[in-house]
Amino acid sequence: MFKKNIVTATGSIVLTIVCGTILTIITANKSTLLMSFGSAFLLAILLYSQLKLARYHSQQVIRTERYHQLGRKLVHINRIKRRDETVALKVLNHIVNQPDSRADHAKIWQRPMEDFSGDLAIACISDSGNTYTLIADLTGHGIAAAMGATPVATIFQATAKRGLSVEQIIIELNDKLTQLLPPGFFCCAAVAVYDGKQITVCNAGLPEILIANNEGYIVDRIESTQLPLGIEELDTSDLCLFKKAYTSPHQLYAFTDGLIETRGANDSVFDSTMLESVIESKPGPVSRIPAIQQSFDDFVKGSEQSDDISIVEVNIC
User: Fold this and answer.
1) Alpha helices in 136-188 (DSSP H)
2) CATH at residue 312
3) How far, in Å, CA of 209 to CA of 242, rounded?
4) Is 197 in the same domain as 55?
5) What is the CB-side half-sphere exposure of residue 178 using CA atoms within 13 A?
6) What does the pLDDT look like over 151-187, one tens digit per residue?
């Protein structure tokens, strides 16, 4: 419609110019009869073209006002959307990201893809003094995934405070998620509990969890041997737990796939091999999280982030 109106307006202008030129020629020839009929005819054409041009301008004014109205509505909708997102983010951060200052055995680094993250990383201390750590990756990104993180965080913090076992926490999380999550949605998660002597870990769908000693050697790997949470019912017999007591300082590293699937500027991938090389190059017991972050940033070099990123480091002994 817009192109059609442009053509009409252009035609009216051209027609006006042509008619004016012809009228000038007729007047110059001083033919009385020709001038009478010709002038009347040309004036009629000129009047018609001017009416068409006026109609075009009127339509443009109406259309411009409509665009302005739509623009004002869009600005208003975006303002409300930003306000609602700010409130939602504040509420979610209050629920999900309340650090427990007593959990000095655990260090966390996260980099969400958007304001709202589908990743979740929490470390807290139970009433009995044990260190509880959760890292989770819910399906998708943004606010939809972040909303799923809310019940996960709430349940984990409540069960950890009560000092429940890893098995009980995993079962309770799975029961709740199977009720809440729609088909096709699930939660990859790992729960670790360190009681000062032994660490117990359950990996449900996350990448291989690494345990390194102070020299940087990877001494244990904890693979996922079960489905992510929220897919089907589980009981304790379905769970595969890793339990081990260490007599010297070690560090556990659990992370989401966003960390080891990020592509750099040359389309290469920051994979698990690169992550392990950073761990091996930095001696403990000083946290390796800053070195991992720096190595990751150097590799990415401003490339667009494609997934939420989270990693948890738990000091053992």
Assistant:
1) 142-161, 166-180
2) 3.60.40.10
3) 11
4) no
5) 13
6) 898 899 999 999 999 999 999 999 999 998 888 889 9
| Measured distance CA(244)–CA(287) in Å, rounded | 21
- Residue whose structure tokens are 């202008």: 13
Q: Per 3-state DSSP, what percentage of the chain is helix, strand, and coil (rounded to 5)?
A: 50, 20, 30
Cis peptide leading into residue 249 (ω within 30°): no
Instruction: Report in angstroms the alpha-carbon separations of 37 from 27, 43, 94, 290.
Output: 12, 10, 85, 91
pLDDT given for residue 2 in this prediction: 46
Query: Alpha-carbon distance 235 to 172, whole Å?
Result: 10
Q: Dihedral (C-alpha) 156, 189, 137, 99: value to the nearest 10 degrees?
A: 40
Instruction: Give the CA count within 13 Å in the CB-facing half-sphere of 291.
Output: 16
Domain span including residue 265:
99-316
Q: What's 274-310 look like in SS3?
A: HHHHHHHHCCCCCCCHHHHHHHHHHHHCCCCCCCCEE
Q: What is the pLDDT of residue 8?
A: 53
Q: Compute and round to an integer the Cα radius of gyration of the chain.
A: 34
Residue 218 and residue 288: Cα distance in Å, rounded? 13
pLDDT digits (tens, 9 = 90+) for 279-291: 999 887 889 999 9
Query: Does 94 fall in a domain?
Result: no
